[in-house]
Design brief:
The protein is of the alpha/beta class. The chain has 7 helices and 10 strands. The protein has a single domain, classed as TIM Barrel. The radius of gyration is 16 Å and the shape is globular. It binds ligand LARABZUK. Its EC number is 5.3.1.24.
Length: about 200
């Protein structure tokens, strides 16, 4: 089965539709105000209402207040949630939506044990750990730390680009890959050629 692709950090309709046209399976929207890729709930929901069928919008939060999460996911049943902070399994589960739990990986981590803490997750997104930066680091991590027999689908993220994604897919065999900075022309704006190249590389790998 070919690897799915999530394009993260979407801030405008043109980039969203271009990513769908290029074959993206999911689009990520960042609801973390300190991020240069932040998008407001109203703008994001307006974009989501115009997405073609079979594309999953993913709402990304970092230890957000319940009121913010509900204001984003309330208007559309289509939203999946990405918990990118230190949220507990009980909190993630409480929204009764499909969700990705992010684990930020560094040397010495017991990934299998961390994955086992989130039995209700639809998938686990593995991203690079960088002190003081919750995500969108543009950095890879040591993919050989990922065990091969994890009980959840894995979404591989962190520093992926059109140049390294095929190798990443070949080595890790993830369920999906996720990219933000590697397909941008500037922070928050996508480069459509890079998005197309990235998706082709992921499907090839
Ligand atoms: O993109 C951000 O600015 C961001 C801020 C806070 C938490 C997460 C954030 N982004 C997450 C992602 O875009 C991806 O899920 C992932 O981290 C890959 O990012 P990149 O290394 O830039 O491809």
């Amino acid at each position: 089965m070919s690897c799915r692709v999530k394009i993260c950090g979407i801030t405008n309709l043109a980039d969203a539709l271009a990513a769908c046209e290029a074959g993206a399976d999911a689009l990520g929207f960042v609801f973390y105000e300190k991020s240069p890729r932040y998008v407001s709930p109203n703008v994001a929901n307006d974009i989501v209402a115009q997405l073609p069928p079979f594309v999953v919008p993913v709402a990304l939060f970092v230890d957000a207040e319940k009121s913010l999460i509900e204001s984003v996911i309330g208007p559309s049943d289509r939203w999946m949630i990405q918990f990118h902070g230190d949220e507990s399994e009980a909190e993630c589960r409480s929204y009764q939506r499909q969700y990705l739990k992010v684990l930020r990986v560094k040397e010495g981590d017991d990934i299998a044990n961390s994955v086992s803490q989130y039995p209700s997750a639809s998938a686990i997104l593995l991203d690079a750990y960088k002190k003081g930066v919750p995500g969108g680091t543009g950095e890879t991590f040591n993919w050989s730390l990922i065990p091969t027999n994890l009980p959840k689908p894995i979404v591989l993220a962190g520093g992926l680009t059109p140049d390294n994604v095929a190798q990443a897919v070949a080595q890790v065999a993830p369920y999906a890959v996720d990219v933000s900075g590697g397909v941008e022309q500037s922070k928050g704006l996508k480069n459509n050629s890079k998005v197309t190249e990235f998706i082709a590389g992921a499907k090839r790998g």
